[in-house]
Amino acid sequence: xxxxxxxxxxxxxxxxxxxxxxxxxxxxxxxxxxxxxxxxxxxxxxxxxxxxxxxxxxxxxxxxxxxxxxxxxxxxxxxxxxxxxxxxxxxxxxxxxxxxxxxxxxxxxxxxxxxxxxxxxxxxxxxxxxxxxxxxxxxxxxxxxxxxxxxxxxxxxxxxxxxxxxxxxxxxxxxxxxxxxxxxxxxxxxxxxxxxxxxxxxxxxxxxxxxxxxxxxxxxxxxxxxxxxxxxxxxxxxxxxxxxxxxxxxxxxxxxxxxxxxxxxxxxxxxxxxxxxxxxxxxxxxxxxxxxxxxxxxxxxxxxxxxxxxxxxxxxxxxxxxxxxxxxxxxxxxxxxxxxxxxxxxxxxxxxxxxxxxxxxxxxxxxxxxxxxxxxxxxxxxxxxx
Length: 386
What we know:
It contains 14 helices and 15 strands. It is an alpha/beta fold. A 7-stranded parallel β-sheet has the order 3-2-1-6-7-8-9, sandwiched between helices. The longest helix is centred in the C-terminal third of the chain and has 26 residues. It starts with 5 loop residues before the first strand and ends with a helix.
């Protein structure tokens, strides 16, 4: 049986560099390397933030209200719809249940094309940051309806699967974790020259935070914790890696913290390995790509009790988890590890060992096998009809 043709719809493919766009670009590159035909649809942007993999069909989009760096496609125009029809996909994979994703779902239902979806963003957890918590029941009603029409829903962590089941999502939930390049993100990337270039001494304990700098990543807690750490132990150094609309304000609030801006590749790997502890209080992650990268680099991780983190960080083994707003606990755990070198060493080894299980090729191949399962079942169904 031939390989299925796959149409991928996403709310972000190249206009913002984040965990979603990185994961989907890696998936498309892997599919094409394996000989699959893929066509990607996503929001158009005047100045994309990254080069994309594969064939991308930009769908006209406008800046998101209040967040102009994000783009929203308000429909699925006839020209782009014709490109989808000409491609004649065997499977439609919808990564974002937004307006474009909804239109893709309607197209698939009308043309009897099987739909699968992947869960990347925990949208309901973002509502509180926009004072829209009252909309959560309505959002879950839509998501339950949307995913009910998907043959399979690929979920990044067991804890997120549990949350979706508790919310009443009825699709066939399949665990599809994210991966890490364990060769790039490696403790051996630690470089004393790199540390010195950032102003860190050999004996300094460096606490690292990596994220896109937007306030919904719980940045207020980041600021509070770093300030408290400095009060409790002025010898502890702190570093923030990332860029975003909150960067300038954070730099003003944390004058003693090193801000590197956006890093990637070997520079990012050097930042992880050149640090000693990883701190991440965001509770909006469905998986936690940066946490996995930190673990692969050999860092103990002190993180929020969130869906993704529960699958990666084991309390007392390779780090600690606590409530997303529990500043006291974050400070206590970070101080404990900063002052106990042997415990840091033990947790470093445990972090690296756990990260080694998340090989990208194996993870991406699993998704391909899921595509084939859907495609072959669908083909068998139509063979019986004919």
